[in-house]
Every structure is written in structure tokens, then in C-alpha cells.
Design a protein that fits this description.
Helices cover 62% and strands 3% of the residues. It is built from 28 helices and 6 strands. It is globular, with a radius of gyration of 28 Å. 40% of the residues are buried. This is PROP1-like PPR domain-containing protein. Keywords: Repeat.
Length: 578
């Protein structure tokens, strides 16, 4: 049972991200640190520079059933109208209880004891938002279903939105649909966030047609899809790995005359950055500024990341400087992006300088920062330095993740240190983590490079028997290793086994197979495999063309291959983003 009667404090901020374990502290004019929850309700918020400001509390209208009722909720941020709640003692009790208790009857029985007051409503919504930040979808469902079905609170669109989001995250699109219908039946007016969350839920469930239907639903009610809804669609498509469709939606958004906002451009810059098309990312950034759409720190960081992925240090530095000139204080994400640029370019000491600079500027490195440094040293063959950073991370109380171990494993794999790699795999298991397919593929690759085929086969057997299934990358490694070693029969046996394992050969599979025969100048056999590849619907890339050309032993053969490749490129339908 809960005891009710505590006032609720709020901190007004413009958040970049939020970590549940972090406790907001503010500095007052006398320089002493004060916990926000100790401040009185009236007059306190933190501006973007981290300084305390005041506000007129009457601007927070306390409508019936709570000050947060009916205000909606900013899609994607996890914050209610930009309000970051500091949980009251009773809200903290509710949060702790919901995170521990899974029995619906017990949860609802305890919630029944709460009084239907303004402060209780605020507490419940703040708890729901906190649970969302923690990605605790089941407790959100229990809480919101209680509010809608059993409590005496007036039904509110915010509560429906939270419930739609939770069901969407759990890929329960039928529940999403029924919740939306309940919202309409309750005569609540859907907000643009409601539609955005519907689109997001359908994308999460892989139902693009239903996501498209949301736009038709909006038009049925005379609503033009806003940037918020389009952004949700683009984001959902990107997360589902459908970048081409995301580009098409972006172009449609422009054709429909929808006003592009900062989030739209940031999403698309991220999309092109991840596709290693930094030139397109920069083109969008310039277009954004020409349209008087102001980039935020996330936009600048996305562009730095775009250049970082291609190891373009100078361009990354240039954008980083523009970020500062625009009045933004670089955060850990921006510094990490710049470090990544040096790492990818093969300049580990440049990354180390940025790592030192961020600390000097009072920006605390996170786990990703240490991972980037491990990778930077590992890429350069400085495995001892990589391990030093790895150990330093542990000393600071930052628990290495599977990725951290993988980066260290890759560092020692590059220098062929099998004993150390095997030791790292053992460390992974001892730390409570289970080696995944990527780890085992790395060991396969290492054994293959060193010609230890027996150990390689042992790993393959373990993968086929164990909990982690071999993927197409596993067989690409095996086909490449056996092909390079001249074991054509084993290579072909592995290739022919793919359909039975429900695996489809990709361009790397076909090219690795072609490469084996190309090294022996078996031109005719290469042409046969190339035809099989085309018939299978796999389009060759630049690597395939090089392998085919290397199989040629006469001018006529080179001319024949060149003609085939040129003809294919001419006939290939390409979609060039505008």
C-alpha cells in the first residue's frame, strides 16, 4: 500500500539523452552542488548551459485530474512536453514496486489504494515516463491498463499514447490497434504523436502496408500528416533495415509539401552516414541550412559520424568546429564521433588526443569512448595499448560489454595471437556473457588465416550443435579459407549445403567461390559460376568484377569480361537520391 500526499517537482530541460541511474545536480551561485529534489516546487529549471533559472509556476495550468492531463507527449523523446520529472517519494515507491511485481492482480490491488488526486495523477504519469526511459514495457502496460480500465481518473490521450507505444515496442500490433479503437470510443482526440506511435508500432512489426494506412486514416479525418508522423515512419524504416523505402518516404514528404524539420534532416543525414555516403549527408546538411532549418547538436554529430565512418578526419574536424561555432558545447557523443574518425583513418594517437581533450573539457568518457580507443589501437596493431585501455575501463567501474571484448579479440586476432584470443573467449564466458555468432566467426577466421583447419572445423561443429546458429558470414569465412587453400571439394560441399540450412548466398559468398577458381586461372569455370550468380538474382559488385578480370589470361578474355560488366551496369536500374 502507498502513502500519498507528496508534492511533485519538475526540471525543465532540453534533453539530449537520459540515463536512469544519473542524478541531476545543479550548481547554485555559491558553487555548492545541490540535488534538484531538495529545491522547492516553484521557480527552478536548468537551461541548456546547465545554469539555474526560474519560471512562473502559474504557467503550468493545473487542469482537472492533474497538471499533465491532456498535454500529449513529445514523440520519441520519452519526456512529457519537455518536462523531466524528478520523482516524488511516493512516485519512487510506485516505480520500485512496478519494476519488481509482475502479478497483475497484486499490482492493480495496490494501485486501487491510491487516492484520485492531482498529485497522484502526476506521480503515475511520471512513473510511466520513467518506465519508458528504462524500456520496461510490461509495467507500463499494467499501469496504463489500470488507469484506463479500473481507476476513476478521466480517460486521457497521454495514457493511450503510452500504452500504444508499449504494445508497439513489444510488437503486439493487434493490441496497438485495439488501444487506438478504445481511444476513439472514449472520444479522446488522437494527437499527431498518436499517429506517429501507430506508424512506429507497425514498422516494428514489419507491417509497412499498415503503416501506410495510418496516413490514409489521418486524411480521413482531414488531417495532413505532419513531420512528426513522417519522421516516425522514416525512423521505423531505418531501424527495420529498409533504407531505400525511407529515402522514398523522404522524397514523398517533400512532394506533399510537408515542412521538413531538424529531426527529419538529422534522420536522413544518419541514414546516408551509415550507408557510407557522406557526400549525400553533406548535401542534405547544406540544403537544411539553405532552408533556414537550424541544425542542432544531434545534426552536427550525425554529420561528424558520417565522415568518421569513412575515416575522413579533416571533414569530421571541420564539422566539429562548426558545431562549436554554432554555440553548442560538444558532448560525449560528439567527441566519440571525432575519435571514431581518427580510429577509422588509422590514427590511434589522434583519437587518444581527442580522448584526453574531452576529459580536460570536463566531459566524462562513456563505455563507447573506451571501446573506440580499444578499436583505434587494435586497428593499428597496438594490441598492448588496446588492452591497457580495456583494463583502465574496468578499473573505473565500467563493465565491458560483448562489443568491448570483441574489439580486444579483434586486436589480438590481427596479430595472430591465438592463445590470447582463446583466453579472451574464456574471459567472456567467465564474465557471464555468452559468446555469440560474431565471436565464434572471429575465431573461425583466425584459425583459417593460420591454416588450423582442424580447430576451424571444431568451432563449426560447436556452432551447429550450440545455441548460436551459423549465419551466412560463417560460411563466407569457410568458403573463402578453403578456396584460398585450394580445397575445392570442401568449398563446394559447404556452398551446396547452404539451401538445406535456409541460408542464401550473398555477393561475398559468390565472389569468394569465384576467387578460388580465379587464382588457378580457370576462366571457363569462373564464367559458369558468374552465370549461376546472375541466375540466382545476386548482383555482382566491384570485388566480383576484379576477381573475374584476374581470371583472364588473354586480351580476348579481358575484353569479354569488360563487355559483360559494362552491359550489366548499363542495364541495371539505379535509384539516385535527389
Amino acid at each position: 500500500m502507498f502513502v500519498v500526499g507528496n508534492t511533485l517537482n519538475h526540471v525543465y530541460i532540453q534533453p539530449r539523452s537520459y540515463k536512469p541511474s544519473f542524478k541531476w545536480m545543479a550548481k547554485n551561485s555559491s558553487s555548492s552542488d545541490v540535488a534538484i529534489e531538495k529545491w522547492k516546487r516553484d521557480g527552478v529549471y536548468i537551461d541548456k548551459r546547465g545554469k539555474l533559472r526560474t519560471f512562473h509556476h502559474k504557467k503550468l495550468s493545473r487542469k482537472r485530474c492533474g497538471s499533465l492531463r491532456g498535454q500529449g507527449w513529445k514523440y520519441g523523446s520519452g519526456f512529457v512536453d519537455g518536462v523531466f520529472p524528478v520523482l516524488s517519494p511516493i512516485a519512487q515507491q510506485i516505480l520500485d514496486f512496478l519494476q519488481q511485481e509482475v502479478d497483475a492482480d497484486r499490482v492493480w490491488g495496490s494501485l486501487d489504494n491510491l487516492s484520485p488526486s492531482h498529485s497522484t495523477w502526476d506521480d503515475l504519469i511520471n512513473v510511466a515516463v520513467q518506465l519508458r526511459l528504462n524500456k520496461k514495457w510490461d509495467p507500463i502496460v499494467l499501469l496504463c491498463e489500470w488507469i484506463l480500465q479500473r481507476s476513476s481518473f478521466q480517460l486521457d490521450v497521454m495514457c493511450f499514447n503510452l500504452l500504444i507505444d508499449a504494445y508497439g515496442q513489444k510488437s503486439l500490433y493487434k493490441k496497438v490497434e485495439s488501444t487506438y479503437l478504445e481511444l476513439l470510443e472514449a472520444r479522446c482526440v488522437p494527437t499527431e504523436d498518436t499517429y506517429a506511435l501507430l506508424v512506429k508500432a507497425y514498422c516494428t512489426a514489419g507491417l509497412k502496408q499498415k503503416a501506410e494506412a495510418v496516413f490514409a486514416e489521418m486524411r480521413k479525418y482531414g488531417l495532413s500528416p505532419s513531420a512528426t508522423v513522417y519522421n516516425a515512419y522514416i525512423d521505423g524504416l531505418m531501424k527495420g533495415g529498409n533504407s531505400q523505402k525511407a529515402i522514398e518516404v523522404f522524397q514523398r514528404m517533400k512532394r506533399d509539401g510537408c515542412q521538413l524539420n531538424t529531426e527529419t534532416y538529422t534522420l536522413m543525414i544518419n541514414l546516408y552516414g551509415k550507408a557510407s555516403k557522406s557526400y549525400m549527408a553533406l548535401k542534405l546538411f547544406d540544403e537544411m541550412r539553405s532552408q533556414k532549418c537550424k541544425p542542432n547538436i544531434c545534426t552536427y554529430t550525425a554529420l561528424v559520424n558520417a565522415f568518421a565512418r569513412e575515416g575522413l578526419c579533416e571533414k569530421a574536424e571541420e564539422i566539429f568546429e562548426q558545431l562549436q561555432e554554432a554555440g553548442h558545447e560538444p558532448d560525449v557523443y560528439a567527441y566519440n564521433a571525432l575519435m571514431e574518425a581518427y580510429s577509422r583513418a588509422g590514427y590511434p594517437y589522434g583519437a587518444a588526443e581527442v580522448f584526453s581533450l574531452m576529459q580536460h573539457m570536463g566531459c566524462e568518457p562513456d563505455r563507447a569512448s573506451f571501446n573506440i580507443m580499444v578499436d583505434a589501437y587494435g586497428r593499428a596493431g597496438l594490441y598492448e595499448d588496446a588492452e591497457s585501455v580495456f583494463e583502465e575501463m574496468k578499473k573505473l567501474g565500467i563493465t565491458p560489454t560483448m562489443k568491448s571484448h570483441m574489439l580486444l579479440l579483434s586486436a589480438y586476432s590481427r596479430v595472430g595471437n591465438i592463445a590470447k584470443c582463446e583466453n579472451i573467449v574464456n574471459q567472456i564466458q567467465e564474465s557471464g556473457l555468452q559468446p555469440d555468432t560474431f565471436v565464434l566467426n572471429s575465431m573461425l577466421n583466425l584459425y583459417g588465416k593460420l591454416g588450423q583447419f582442424k580447430n576451424m572445423e571444431k568451432v563449426l561443429v560447436a556452432m551447429e550443435k550450440g545455441p548460436y546458429e551459423a549465419d551466412i558470414s560463417t560460411y563466407n569465412i569457410l568458403i573463402n579459407v578453403y578456396g584460398r587453400a585450394g580445397y575445392f571439394n570442401r568449398m563446394e560441399e559447404l556452398f551446396q549445403s547452404l539451401p538445406a540450412k535456409n541460408l542464401t548466398p550473398d555477393v561475398v559468398t559468390w565472389t569468394s567461390r569465384l576467387g578460388a577458381y580465379s587464382r588457378k586461372k580457370l576462366y571457363q569455370r569462373c564464367l559458369e559460376i558468374f552465370e549461376e550468380m546472375i541466375d540466382a538474382g545476386c548482383y555482382p559488385d566491384g570485388g566480383t568484377a576484379k576477381v573475374l578480370l584476374s581470371a583472364c589470361s588473354s586480351e580476348d578474355q579481358i575484353e569479354q569480361v569488360t563487355t559483360v560488366i559494362r552491359t550489366m551496369h548499363k542495364d541495371m536500374k539505379t535509384v539516385l537520391p535527389i
